[in-house]
Amino acid sequence: MLDRNQIAQRIAQEVQDGWYVNLGIGIPTLIANYVPEDISVEFQSENGILGMGPFPFEGEEDADLINAGKQTITARPGAAIFDSATSFAMIRGQHINLTVLGAMEVAQNGDIANWKIPGKLVKGMGGAMDLVASAENIIVAMMHTNRKGDSKILEQCTLPLTGVGCVKKVVTNMAVLEVLGDGFRLLERAPGVSVEDIRNATAARLVVDGEVPEITF
Which domain of life does the protein's organism represent (predicted)? Predict the structure, then answer.
């Protein structure tokens, strides 16, 4: 199966030249490390920066330069730093070409639940509600199952929703899935993971069209 960095590396293949991309906390923040050098991409963080670069090397961190997850980051030449009002005007104005979020559950109609942690006190869904309401292209980076082995790819979400019918694609540690509205199409599978393994780990309807290639980097 893929690890967190490999999930991010696979999603980086979806990024196109000239795009503005918002990266959520968790696995999505790793994507900036894997974008090909021959394309130009501007990464945006909702706390108010456009032009994020890869994570800094140890010893080169700047505590005043952080992403939405409070991790230290680097800024590319020409990066802009601004207030949250400007950041969310950019998001709500649909100036972001791609949003990548983590999730606890994704449903086959594109619903996403990514803020309510069962049994834990949380402050709310934060800026994710604006991102999923405004973005037209949303990819989710997540693990296919929870720690108990239960599927997080569902017919219907069981946790409170962050957004409705908004997710286009999901990349997990097992597979790349396209949201169809009434199921998921299996596009790619992790090296060494069979279609049957993915089917057994998926609680939603899974559509398999012919031979499914392995994920390559």
Answer: Bacteria
Active site residues: 46
The answer to whether position 167 is within a domain reads: yes
CB 23 within 8 A of CB 32: yes
Q: What is the CATH number of the domain that holds 194?
A: 3.40.1080.10
Instruction: Please give the pLDDT value at position 16.
Output: 96
Specify whether the CB–CB gap between 112 and 132 falls below 8 A. Answer: yes
- The tally of domains found in the chain comes to 1
The predicted pLDDT at position 118 comes to 77
What are the residues whose beta carbons fall under 8 Å from the beta carbon of 166, sequence distance 6 or more? 110, 111, 112, 132, 133, 135, 138
How crowded is residue 213: how many other Cβ atoms within 10 Å of its Cβ?
Answer: 10
Where the chain has pLDDT below 70, the residues are: none
Q: How far apart are CA 4 and CA 12, in angstroms?
A: 13
- Digit-coded pLDDT (tens) for 94-103: 999 999 999 9
Instruction: Provide the β-strand partners of residue 50.
Output: 44, 80
Distance CA 109, CA 167 (A): 8
Structure tokens at 4: 């967190």
Give residue 108's pLDDT.
98
**Range(s) of the domain holding residue 10:** 4-38+96-207
Do the beta carbons of residue 105 and residue 113 sit within 8 Å?
A: yes
Task: Report yes or no on 86 lying in a domain.
Answer: no
Q: What is the pTM of this model?
A: 0.94
Question: What does the alpha-carbon distance between residue 132 and residue 164 come to, in Å, rounded to a whole number?
Answer: 8
